[in-house]
């Protein structure tokens, strides 16, 4: 007769909390115009201000750079890392074309634009983030910060911030 296998004791501790209240959504747009064509800007504090304005205490916040040549991502707020990320992206998707300015241009440039690299960099870094909100604050891990990455800047662009969750009664 086969013996039942006993599950191992989990090293995880589950401590759930049920939060109730009225469901709500809040939407606001942030506008940015970077002074450089390519740059990374921390936006955690701006997103937190919008969450606070929303009155939502528990839920999620979506941060979406409503443009196809920009990204929003989460990582450490360390400016050397910003430079490393931009250097890495430039090696993978260089300005001009896959061989930089020494070879054929991106096919996207046949449309008359010169930002093929910006579209690829956005694909590599990601599009948008959804982050948890708890007690009316971003619920971030150690060192986590929200960043806006611009790859074809020096013009006005918008970032959609949508907070979805509960307003405690």
Q: Explain this structure to me?
A:
The protein has 169 residues and is an alpha+beta fold. The chain has one domain (22-167): YjbQ-like (Jelly Rolls), CATH 2.60.120.460. Helices cover 21% and strands 33% of the residues. It has 3 helices and 8 strands. The chain has helices at residues 44-54, 79-92, 116-125; strands spanning 22-32, 39-42, 58-64, 70-76, 129-134, 137-138, 144-150, 157-167. The strands form 2 sheets. The protein has a 5-stranded antiparallel β-sheet, covered by helices on one side. A hairpin with a 2-residue loop joins strand 5 (129-134) and strand 6. The model has no long low-confidence stretch (mean pLDDT 92).
Helical amount:
10-25%
Spatial shape: globular
Strand count, sense and barrel status of the largest sheet are: 5 strands, antiparallel
| Mean pLDDT metric | 92
H/E topology pattern: EEHEEHHEEEE
Q: Any chance you could write out the topology, listing elements then pairs?
A:
Layout: E1 22-32, E2 39-42, H1 44-54, E3 58-64, E4 70-76, H2 79-92, H3 116-125, E5 129-134, E6 137-138, E7 144-150, E8 157-167
Antiparallel strand pairs: 1-8, 2-7, 3-5, 3-8, 4-7, 5-6
Write a short abstract of this structure.
The chain has 169 residues and is an alpha+beta fold. The protein contains three helices and eight strands. The longest helix is centred in the middle third of the chain and has 14 residues, at 79-92.
Question: What keyword list fits this structure?
Answer:
Jelly Rolls, three-stranded antiparallel sheet, single chain, 8 strands, 3 helices, alpha+beta, five-stranded antiparallel sheet, 169 residues
